[in-house]
Specification:
With 403 residues, the chain is an alpha/beta fold. The protein has 14 helices and 12 strands. The strands form 2 sheets. A 7-stranded mixed sheet has the order 9-8-7-6-10-11-12. A 5-stranded mixed sheet has the order 1-2-4-3-5, sandwiched between helices. Helix 3 packs across helix 14, helix 6 packs across helix 7 and helix 6 crosses helix 12. Bound molecules: nicotinamide-adenine-dinucleotide (NAD).
Length: 403
């Protein structure tokens, strides 16, 4: 597996090569401001004590408090978290919200823990992170394998709702947060539809990863007339050229915990899903899935990155040469952090917005972000990722304090 932090640095360098940035600024952008590693002791249900490694990386906070999710995964490590923190700084700047970039994680397979063990792990993470996390300092959120339940535990541990976002509504969560990443990605796609000559009637969609982001995106596509021909999760992929009945696939996944063996489709592999002929390919699982090794087989016209870092820099170049438009993660999935920011804003002001108010504001910010990135891409005659990084770096640079 390629080092995701090296990939993130390569993305910075590629964007920097297109325009003239202050070298001191670029050097600072290559280093996270702070990296915290913790050892979390958890009393397991069988009475034994197990110690888990946890992380928080705070990349940059010139535009506002550090912001970014907490990931629970057996393969999570500090380099992955560093990359994700850098991408958060870029993403918040692309979305033009007053937040910086951070990310957290724990190396754990959460499927092997009971709810009680997960609660002790999460509260342990929060207790050890108290010196570096807070409403005006660093505001975590859910990421892979963490949910509103974990965020509620953290808010409860701190005794302040604004310390995390992505909470349940009774605990101070925002309307719309649960579906925000997919909703934002959909607004971006719709905003660019005419520029990309995309017609829902004739455009098929394939989605890798059928969790929070993937399921909601699939639902939106299905509802708006796009044909979702394939979806997948870690159990495998399913395909039906005539289009999947997404609500039925969700019901099947809820009942069996997997998408494979769905009655209205044939089982395929995740690799086969990536190689399907389709209008829009949506990686919505983990990073490094479109690489130099498999990019030649990608036949989609558009890649919309709901996952963070799914395309390696080498694969990016090949897609660009092939004329595939990659709508990069820092734009495509920035709806999640944008509504997280709305949640934090509501908590800080003690306000409650309706879902309609949240999505109205989200739509405006996503459309502005998509437009800014598209205009930069045209001006620099480059791909959308480099353009998004240039937009973000310009905005972060303008907030740089005197050193
Ligand atoms: P999730 O845990 O809800 O879902 C992840 C999905 O990916 C699951 O269906 C899982 O089975 C699947 N998966 C795991 N390994 C796979 C593999 N090898 N092949 C195919 N599928 C696999 O997570 P999520 O919240 O939907 O996040 C997915 C991606 O979106 C991550 O990269 C995350 O960083 C990014 N993202 C999420 C949000 C958010 O608000 N949820 C915001 C921004 C970015």
């Amino acid at each position: 597996m390629q080092n995701p932090f090296e990939n993130a640095l390569a993305q910075i360098n590629r964007a920097a090569a297109l325009t003239s940035f202050d070298p001191d600024f670029l050097e600072l952008m290559r280093h996270p401001m702070r990296q915290v590693r913790i050892s979390i002791p958890v009393r397991m249900d069988n009475g034994s004590l197990q110690v888990f490694e946890g992380y928080r990386v705070q990349h940059n906070n010139w535009r506002g408090p550090f912001k970014g999710g907490i990931r629970y995964h057996q393969d999570t490590n500090i380099d992955e978290v560093k990359a994700l923190a850098l991408w958060m700084a870029v993403k918040c700047a692309v979305a033009n919200i007053p937040m910086g970039g951070g990310k957290g994680g724990v190396t754990v397979n959460p499927k092997l823990l009971s709810v009680g063990e997960l609660e002790r792990l999460t509260r342990g993470w929060a207790r050890l992170m108290k010196p570096v996390v807070g409403p005006e300092v660093d505001v975590p959120a859910p990421d892979v394998n963490t949910t509103p339940r974990e965020m509620d535990w953290i808010a409860n541990e701190f005794g302040h709702p604004a310390v995390v976002t992505g909470k349940t509504i009774p605990a101070g969560g925002s309307e719309g947060r649960g579906t925000a990443t997919a909703q934002g990605g959909f607004y971006v796609l719709e905003g660019l539809k005419s520029r990309l000559f995309l017609d829902p009637e004739t455009s098929s969609v394939a989605i890798q990863g059928f969790g929070n982001a993937g399921q909601h995106f699939g639902t939106l596509c299905h509802r708006h007339g796009y044909k979702v021909i394939a979806v997948s999760d870690s159990s495998g992929a399913i395909h039906n050229e005539a289009g999947l009945d997404i609500p039925a696939v969700i019901a099947h996944k809820n009942a069996t915990d997997k998408v494979s063996d769905f009655a209205g489709a044939r089982n395929i592999t995740n690799e086969e899903l990536l190689a399907l002929e389709c209008g829009v390919l949506v990686p919505a699982a983990l990073e490094n899935v479109i690489t130099a090794d498999n990019v030649a087989s990608v036949k989609a016209k558009i890649v919309l990155e709901l996952a963070n870092g799914p395309t390696t820099p080498e694969a990016d170049d090949v897609l660009f040469q092939k004329g595939v438009t990659v709508i990069p993660d820092v734009l495509a999935n920035s709806g999640g952090v944008t509504v997280s920011y709305f949640e934090w804003d509501q908590n800080m002001k003690n306000e409650k917005w309706t879902e309609a108010q949240v999505f109205e504001k989200l739509k405006v910010l996503m459309a502005e972000a998509a437009e800014a990135v598209w205009a930069k891409k045209e001006a620099l005659k480059t791909d959308m990722r480099r353009a998004a990084f240039v937009v973000a770096l310009e905005r972060i640079h303008s907030a740089m304090p005197k050193m």
